[in-house]
Design goal:
21 helices, alpha+beta, five-stranded antiparallel beta sheet
Amino acid sequence: MPKNTSVAAHLRRLLDLLASGAPAEDFGTVATEARRGGVDGDDLAEIEQATQAALRVRGALRQHQRREAELTALFDTAGDLAALRDLDAVLRSIVRRARMLLGTDTAYLTLPDEEAGDTFMRVTDGSVSELFQNLRLQLGEGLGGLVAQTARPYATPDYRTDERFHHTHSIDAGVLDEGLVAILGVPLLLGSGSGGKVIGALFAADRTPRTFSPDEVALLCSLANHAAIAIDTAKAMTDARVALAELAEANAVIRERSAAMQRAEESHDRLSDLVLRGGDVADVAAAVADLLEGDVTVFDAGGWPLTPTAHGAGGAGGSAPAGIGGTDAPKGFVGTGGTGGTDDAAALVRAAEESRATAHAVVHDGRWVCAVLAGQEMLGSLVLSGRPDLDGPDRRLFERSSVVTSLLLLLRRSVAEAENRVRGDLITDLLTAPDRDPAGLVARGRNLGIDLNRPHLVLVASTDADVRDRLAGAAVQYLFGGDGVSAEHAGTVMLVPDSGATPGDAAGAAAEQLTHLVGAPVTVAGAGPAAGPRALADAHAEAARCLQALTVLGRRGAGGSAGELGFLGVLLGEDHDVEGFVRATLGPLLEYDDRRGTQLVRTLGAYFGCGGSLTRAKEELHVHINTVVQRLDRVQALLGPDWNSPENALELQLALRLRLLSRG
């Protein structure tokens, strides 16, 4: 610069450097240039003093700028907290700002693990070591452990040589792997003073030696305070969300229980009103099916249906197959699509026993079964289908309905037993003296709900002497739910079922169920239908004779009628249907002869008449012996391979004789 340059020019130069934010070394060149330009004495001293003042101003400006940046960062952090949505994002932002403001190589934040009893790395920024990122520190271990234990900030210019900290192999290995040297750590505090709680620590670290200034410590403490607030706020919000969720769940439970109580009250009122109005078991089943939106059937203690299957709004609907004892319920326990029978009834009994043992409804084969009890006596069971997901309130409603069902069954049984005793007296008089007062017998029957002038089937049942006392009760149970009547007579039990089946079918069905109820073979014979006192008494006599024949023939535990016993039925039957017996026995041969013009019936008669001799039969018929053989082969083809067995041969010979007699 020329020697005539004024001092003012150098001062303006200092101001320009301040304005441009030039580095500190540029300010020293001003005094050097002034000296070279010939400035000396007081003027040079003035320039040097101005240079020192400019450097102080520059330092103050730089401090204000740094403080402004720090305040801006803190303000931005506060804004993040105000709009807290993601705790991880806020913590990452705080750690990133700490690294940026302090100008360190890395920054990180640790939080305590209450279950493990140590601290772990929650967020890192600038870290490159996986080993370091997965470090865990016990209280008192390393710089971080000391910060967490004492709730005070700590800084070290060279951690590896600093003996103030408890060094461990794992921590030193992580720090070495990350290459850290200078570390500053401050606590994350909630509250102040002795009541403050450390919930973590915030760190800034360099990979070269460095001394952290008090301002840098204060700045990191401010960021740590924000991080503590963010964590506490997030925890409070989480707790609030959990509390709200629990409150919503509690409200839902309260509403559900309130609705369940209201529904239970309405159900109780409905069932009580049904009973008070004289409703029957079938009405209870229909009400329960409607309430639970499923299909409900009431079964007796032996596993046989007492009611038709009642269909609710959610049930299978439609009509169930015809059942036992005149109901429309499925036979046995299988239900729709099943064949029913003893095995199914036994399965239901086992499920009902399980329900009695647990005092609750149980699931069996996709259906709910609840025992119907009177004390410890098993009266029957309720079966609900179509509701595999029966919940608590509905399950309790189903179980309570079994109590109402048990009351009705007890009432019905008491009424049935009383009526059966009176009806039993009527049956006894009917069998012992049917002609004494027929009109009086009919009138007594009408008063008891039995129209003796209407055709009825008559069944006679017997069993072993040691279980005979069970048979009468089993008969009452078998007829339970219908209009039939039973009574003991001459060591047997007479049943008059309300059924339109044939005598043989009715006897077979009764034998099967009575055997199950008694627990021993029960033989049943059927006759009828018959109408009027005398005809009913005769039907009973025929059934009694048929029962004796079944026993003699070894058909113990079976059911049948005179019409099913072949020639014995002709002998035992009251109407002696000779023509029907002949037609049933020789029918295929008679039809063949009529259609083909053959002589199979005449050949069969000659064969039996000659004692089974083919030679004598061919002489009797005046045909070749081969013709006799061919005709008998045809007989076998029509009647079956066992046509010549002793039993069948006897029936064929009897039918041939009766045919000859009937033709005169």
